[in-house]
Amino acid sequence: MKKARLSPWDIAWLVFAALYFLIPLYGTAEFSLETGVGKYGIDAYQHVIGDTSLQQIDFKDTFPLSLKLAVATVILSIVLMVPTVYWVHLKLPRVRQIMDFVATLPLVIPPITLAVGILQLFQAGSQQSRGPAQVLVADPSSWLLSGPQILALSYVILGLPFTYRSLDAGMRAIDLKTLTEAGQSMGASWFTVLWRVILPNLRFAILSSAFLTVTLVMGEYTMASIMLFNTFPTFMFVVTTGGDAHQGAALAIISLLLTWAALLGILLLGRKSGRRDTQIAGAR
Amino acid sequence: MANLELRGLQKRFGEVVALRNLDLGIETGEFVAFLGPSGCGKTTALRIVAGFERPDAGNVLLGGKDITDLPANRRDMGMVFQAYSLFPNLNARDNVAFGLRVRKVAAAQRTKRAGDLLDLVGLSSAASRYPHQLSGGQQQRVALARALAIEPRVLLLDEPLSALDAKVRVQLREEIRRLQTQLGITTLFVTHDQEEALSISDRVVVLSQGQIEQVGAPTEIYGNPLTAFVAQFVGTMNRIEGSALPSSGIITAGGTRLPAQAARDWRENERVLLLLRPEAIEVMLGEDESSPVLAGTVKSQIFLGSVTRLYVATEVGELMVDLGSLRALSCPVGSMVALRWKPEAPRLIGLAPGSNGHQSPPGQSMPGPAIAETAGRS
Amino acid sequence: MAEVAEERVPALSGGMAVAPLRARSRSTRARTMLWLPMAPFFLYVVLFLVLPTIWLVVGAFQDTSGSFTTSNMRSLFQGGNLDAYKTSIELSLATALTGSVFGFFVAYAMVKDGAPRWIRALLSTFAGVAANFAGVPLAFAFVATLGTTGVVTVLLNNHGLHIYQSGFTVYSFGGLVLVYTYFQMPLMLLVISPALDGLRREWREAAVSLGASGQQFWRWVGLPILWPSLFGAAVLLFGSAFSAYATTVALVGSQINLVPIKIGSILSGDFAADPNQANALAVGMIVIIAAVMVVYAVLQRRSNRWFR
Q: Is the separation of the CB atoms in C179 and C138 below 8 Å?
């Protein structure tokens, strides 16, 4: 039953919010479509995607890299977190509190500090030069630092709060114990139970955490720049602060559309599974 | 204290019509229950009286004064909600004293009055406890004390017992009634539980789909239902369709004649519904020489405590028959039983083609000040 | 327990020397099996979260030759570094405030009974988008809007309001506040909505039926119940602003002295300083944010009291 209507005060705030959110987006979009004074076209988009001459890094290299990183991070997160959260829910409920705490740590340790720490740690590690330490520590460390793999591994940590929360909520909603026992009573191994029984029931939670991870990775600038990798966000930075403003705007719009698509994906998935509480929207 | 009058209340929410022209008068000090299934409009009516909803049309009058446009916080009515209405950040005492604080009553006086009221509801020991430390029943008692603290002119209760355990429900409803009688407050009690409504009200208003089906004392509603809806909703009824035979009763499509004194008021061959309470059907003892009305086979039994309900298959359909559990032992499943009833027992309700049984026989008017919709019976 | 097992085992295996060992390992084996599957996760967290942090802290107490020193940490309380912390804290407080107030009123309007459902869905989506838009794109969006040739700037100029001539610039502390609020407000929205949802309609109606005005309700019931959540959310906003890096560096580069910016500058060589200084600055950040999170946790526990 509808009770109080919206007062003018409420409406004023809502309108203000709408304007505040939309005007910058509009400004960016307009900028991205300006080709000259009063002229409009998609030149900026074409240039920023196509041009390879201007900068040392370009769209063709950075965008696919970010995508690959996103996919890798998602896979790593799922492989690491799903069995872990499953096990905690099933066998170690008291560890939940510790998990909650650990999952909040990446929010406490700012990405910039984490980047520094990881860099320094593995740089130090790669300098071990005596016997077993060489093989066990130095070589892996150098390998880790040799390419963007270190980024993917770091991003898993960055995304931990969201991934954990998503999976935790998802597992809480299904009767894990009964499902597991049912599977095991039919002779399934742990792996089979996870793969065939639990996973399908967690589809929504996994997909929503995957989408969130993707938006995180596609937008993450801090760690990538400190660790000197050329990802899509760093490319955006270079173009925005150095190159053509219109192209910068175009990239911003592309990034926005990506985020939008990802979030819409979550919402649509949410509606399909009949959920009314996605990670993005507040619960009724 | 004052009397309450609802005149022509109408309310719709978008497409849904919640109230279709409600007219009702409630005397000072009367305990009136609004009874009906969910969606019948009973809560909407209550909320309009409280001031939380504005009617699309109609008026609410308190003590003769029109309060339809008066804001809810100026109506001087005490309200008890179904659950969770206690302020969680205040203990029981402060909750009860809240209304007094709004009215700028001095602190010492507030505390005293709150204490008195908590005594009244038997919770003085819990005065310092917070809502989350109280059981459901205790919370509702505090809610009641809080509503009464402001000495309201009208007490409104919106399904206050629905969220409680069965035992607590029975206890609490009797306490509510006791308090109400003691204080003489005009009270409106909304519920979907007919047992609740019948056991403690002065009058019951049965609602369905936004309209009043019947208004009357509990015995009236139970014993003398005027529409098929009331007959079905309140208590259990056996229903047998047939055509009226004014001299004796009814005759069914299958040709069975059944006695019903009420048929006197109907015209020959009018289609009617015969309603009969399970407890009104007697199972005849073997020695009884008089002729039975119907014979049948016991299909199943349900043990209800002191009473057992038999489901008996007869030529007019399956009938429910209540009898004492001891006697029921001699009528096991599969046995044949002979049934009869007193001719005065059945009620008849009109079944003109296309109607849904809202009609009364010709010449009989609706009791009470309520106006139920009649389908144009001349 | 061990004795019992000792008695039984010889009957099974026939060997005596084996017995005690087997008995003890049975329960430890069970415990190992219980905790083993947690190993990958804990290992990962240690390797990529705990160890780096420890290394970071250790590095803060070392000088370039690797020997122990507290000079890096002490330098945090001097000159440029202290300024950086001051400005960072000021900025975080300011945007925590703007984000909280803005976010609260919008959230309240959205959660109200009378609000159409679509407003909530729309705002929640936008909140998600805006919160993720933070970083380089956001900085640019504001440049495109309020920069010297930004869309709104030009619009205002055309109407006689030459804001840049009056001294406004988006590349300033004020500009940062404006920009930060763009992701602070949605964060507030997302965090406070559940708390507002928890504010049961019955409480408001009960208060009204007892004669309370809107103000009385908020003063005696609403705000007392909400304040832990409100404060907790504001604290979260503080932490979020404090750690912000990408948006800031994209907008103002090193023009404004903030701790994350300083760290970035030292590492990239723009700012001449001992790299361990960056460590020290980072440790300072961690300490401040940790304190912030502790406050948040305490407030969370308080606010949970009401919603049992």
A: yes
Instruction: Name which of A25, A110, A219 is nearest C289 (Cβ-Cβ).
Output: A110
Instruction: Say which amino acid occupies A165.
Output: R
Structure tokens at B74: 């100026």
Beta strands per DSSP E along chain B:
4-13, 16-26, 31-35, 57-62, 65-66, 77-80, 154-158, 186-191, 203-208, 211-216, 238-245, 249-251, 257-259, 271-276, 282-283, 294-303, 307-314, 317-324, 336-340, 347-350
In tens digits, what is the pLDDT along chain C, a chain of 308 residues?
A: 343 333 333 444 444 444 455 555 667 888 888 888 888 999 999 989 998 999 888 888 888 777 888 888 888 888 888 989 999 999 999 999 999 999 999 988 888 777 777 787 777 777 777 777 788 888 888 888 888 888 888 888 888 888 887 778 888 888 899 999 998 998 888 888 888 888 888 899 999 999 999 899 999 999 988 888 888 888 889 988 998 998 998 888 888 889 999 888 888 877 777 888 888 999 999 999 888 888 888 887 877 776 54
Cα torsion B310, B313, B314, B316: sign = positive
Q: How far, CA to CA in Å, does B71 sit from each of B21, B48, B61, C213? A: 22, 11, 14, 10
Residues of chain B positioned with their CB less than 8 A from the CB of A1: 13, 44, 47, 53
User: Residue C238 gets which letter from DSSP?
Assistant: H
CA–CA gap between residue B37 and residue B207 (Å, rounded): 8
Scanning every residue of chain A, which has its alpha carbon at the shortest distance from the alpha carbon of C181? A20
Q: Which among A268, A158, A256 is positioned nearest to A207, based on CA atoms? A: A268
Token pair 């705490």 in the structure block, residue = A101
Q: Which chains touch A (3 or more CB pairs under 8 A)?
A: B, C
Q: What is the pTM of this model?
A: 0.75
Phi, psi of B291 (to 5 degrees): -80, 140
Cα radius of gyration (chain C): 28
Distance, in Å, from the CA atom of A249 to the CA atom of A39, rounded to the nearest integer, reads 16
Pair A207, A269: CB distance under 8 Å: yes
Look up residue A264 and give its two tokens.
């819409």
Q: How far is the CA of C42 from the CAs of A98, A112, A150, C45, C50, in angstroms?
A: 11, 22, 18, 5, 10
What is residue B66's three-state secondary structure?
strand
Residues of chain C contacting A284 with CB distance shorter than 8 Å: 197
Q: Is B129 near chain C, with CB under 8 Å?
A: no
Give B368-377's long-range contacts (Cβ < 8 A, gap of 24+): B368/B203, B368/B215, B368/B216, B369/B23, B369/B24, B369/B25, B369/B215, B370/B23, B370/B24, B370/B205, B370/B212, B370/B214, B370/B215, B371/B23, B371/B212, B372/B211, B372/B212, B372/B213, B372/B214, B372/B226, B372/B227, B373/B211, B377/B350
> Contact, B96 vs B114, CB < 8 A?
yes
Contacting residues for B70 by C-beta, under 8 A, at least 6 apart: B51
Instruction: Extract the tokens encoding B30.
Output: 């009367």
CATH code: domain A45-273 is 1.10.3720.10
- Do the Cβ atoms of C144 and A251 come within 8 Å? no
Question: How many CB pairs below 8 Å do chains A and C form together?
Answer: 253
Residue linked to tokens 């560890």: A95
**CA neighbor of B97 nearest in space, from B73, B125, B72, B128:** B128
Measured CA to CA, the distance from residue B168 to residue B162 in angstroms comes to 10
Domain boundaries, chain A: 45-273
Structure token pair of residue B135: 């059981």
Q: How many CB atoms lie within 10 A of CB A227?
A: 20
Cβ neighbours of residue C218 closer than 8 Å, sequence gap 6 or more: none
Q: Which residue has the tokens 């609000």?
A: C115
- C-beta atoms of C209 and B132 within 8 A: no
Query: Do residues C214 and C108 lie in contact, with contact meaning Cβ atoms separated by under 8 Å?
Result: no
Sign of CA dihedral B201, B204, B208, B209: negative
Pinpoint the residues of chain C covered by CATH 1.10.3720.10: 79-304
Superfamily of the domain at C79-304: MetI-like (1.10.3720.10)
